[in-house]
Amino acid sequence: MDTSFTAEQNEIRRTVREVLAKRCGPEDVRAAASTAAGYDPALWATLGGQLGLPGLALPEAYGGAGCGTTDLALACEEVGRTLAPSPLLATAVLAAPLLLALGTDAQRAALLPRIAAGELTATLAVPGAALATALALAGDNRGDWAGGGRAGGVQARRAAGTWRLYGEAAQVLHGHSAGLLVVAAHAGGFARSRTLLFLVRDGAVRTRQTALDGTRPCARIQLRDVEAELLGEDGADVAVALASVGDRAAAVLACEAVGAADRVLERTVEYVGQREQFGRPIGSFQAVKHRLADVYVRVRAARSAAYYAAWAGGKESGGAARRGCPQALSAGGGSLEGPCRETDGQVGGLALAQALQALRTAAAEGIQLHGGIGFTWEGAAHLYFKRAAGDELLFGPVHRLRAHAADAAGLFERGEVAV
């Protein structure tokens, strides 16, 4: 089993890191997050238009690079290191795969090339705060999270050959600025209850919400008799598509969180080597070394899990993760080769849980070891802590990610109690 990266993958990592190192320092991150768009349009033009990051995992037929989940995850790992605010996650990880999986030929031809070129941003909008449930990360997504019955959530009605949407979606990533909304809505009432996805371009009332993590801008979307276009065909299994996208999105998110954890650990190690107490750097004290060593082990383990999940997401074709491989990916590389068996495990969700926990630990230790400057606006450690907490609110929490994965895998039999 080959666990090394290809030359192209190493080039992706190097190029993205060099661009972000020059244009995305802590002050740049704060400035971009405070703008109306929530990100730097010039930086996005570079990442999207010049480097083609939104099209990395899209087929060449639609203007993409034809790469896999691993390549996109490696790029997002570098973005995570700097916490660069950008619509990359919402567009390339959540919305574009759904357009590719469910869209008609006409919809794909009209939208995917624009996304691959960085000209169009998109996002997934689900009712309430049910994003983790919709993606089948923290629960079964075949329930009524989209709005069951005749009220609640987002309702879709068809009249005179046109679909109209009514309702509200909250915590929509980049929902205030995205050029295209992929909205999950309930249709059919009680007689033919089902969840469908719709494309909304205009007509929605968008309000940017105050977010714990300013680098992840979210919005409330209000739909008041808004005209929408059905994504794909009415009979498509939306739950399966969302679950497949969710598992791969979790793997990419895990790599992004690992990048952030690795960077905050680097910052902390650098700081304790400079800060002196009792006439010597505090990094020379054994207690400090032990704490940083524990963080290092967590980050390395999380990176291994994230790389494996990204590899599994790239190899599978229907959303099922893989197991039975000769060995897990080492922390130093990813693999594009090697036969494995398919299973219904939740590899992406488990990797995300481990990565988010590693990021929270690394950020918390960073704040502690930075002392009083750790959580001030002038420092950068608090940005990473807020990213960890914010991602848990959006895609977790960690214990629910693990509990759902254990339940889906049948880890505990009925009546068995885990101690």
UniProtKB/TrEMBL annotation:
Residues 251-313 form the Acyl-CoA dehydrogenase/oxidase C-terminal domain. Its cofactor is FAD. The keyword Flavoprotein applies. Residues 6-119 form the Acyl-CoA dehydrogenase/oxidase N-terminal domain. Keywords: FAD, Flavoprotein, Oxidoreductase. Pfam families: Acyl-CoA_dh_1, Acyl-CoA_dh_N. SUPFAM superfamilies: Acyl-CoA dehydrogenase C-terminal domain-like, Acyl-CoA dehydrogenase NM domain-like. The keyword Protein transport does not apply. Belongs to the acyl-CoA dehydrogenase family. This is Acyl-CoA/acyl-ACP dehydrogenase. It comes from Streptomyces cynarae.
